[in-house]
# Entry
Amino acid sequence: MAAGTADPKIARTRTFSLIANSNLGIKLSPPDLNLAADWASKPDFAQLHHASFLLALDKLQNATNAMQLQTATNLLQKAVALGSPEAQFALGKIFFDGLLGNPDYRQARASIEAAGKQGVLAASLFMASWSYYGKGDLNGNGNLNDAIEWVTAPAAAGIPEAEFLTGLICLRTQKDGADRALPHFDEAARAGHAYAQLYQAVLLERAASTSYNYDNVVRLYEAAAAQGVARAKYALALIKRAHIVYDDAPRDSWTLLREAADQQYPLAQLELARAYESGNGVKPSMAEAMRWYRLAAESGVAEACDRLAEIYATGIGWTGVDKQIASTYEARAKELREFHQQNGSSFF
# Structure
């Protein structure tokens, strides 16, 4: 396999899953393929291009090596030539993910944009996300105006991911962004979108001047945590440790905090380090405390750098004094605070 080529089986599964679950209503099965074959035998042009797409998608779904991926790509290109916008989106995703080699963002953009302009909602949503997050050729520099333009149609169709993205755009572009974002997060959260549940809970919890149902906040955190969202687990751990709700708070809070830290959520790593140092809810262990302080520091938590600087400067609870390491952590803490002051905290 050429250098830079993704594992074919994993790559084609990822691409197929995105297409098959992207509001296209396509679920391949033997009846689908029989119908596609029947369509392909008829002169109706619309049926022919859609049949070609289904057959090409089946090849992509079952590709296990680079040659089969190339065959599927060739079939998609033929379906595009016959006028299938869905095939154009699928082809663009192949270019974007670099399934045949290195990513080709120019061709990916051309194909996906064309599919979006022909009404493929998944393609419009992909372009909205690409524009917002600045992936690929945008190198981290998003274009909010493009994101707003592309997200409109999938949001109007009620696609949860589009509702969530619209909420994020409101937060970044509107003076009263939180108020405008909440209805969009609510729609997506009701559909089971984990990060919409998280954002809605955080915004409601932060609305100190607004009355809200705290049980609803907890419910939203629980729903997001059940789907594996580390930030939600961390929030629930803090709520339970404060004994705001739940009689079994200490036991459950420790489990949630450890899970969030294991998932590399920085503030959970910091809290876990403090717990090990103080013995709050766990047997004290300075070795474990140091390990988690270092991980939190590597994740960009200035408070972790502060504590490491103190420990190395004084030798508190550790093996000795190291002024040089202490000075390094002091400098790092200063850098992090300056960065967060200029760019905002990265820990939502």
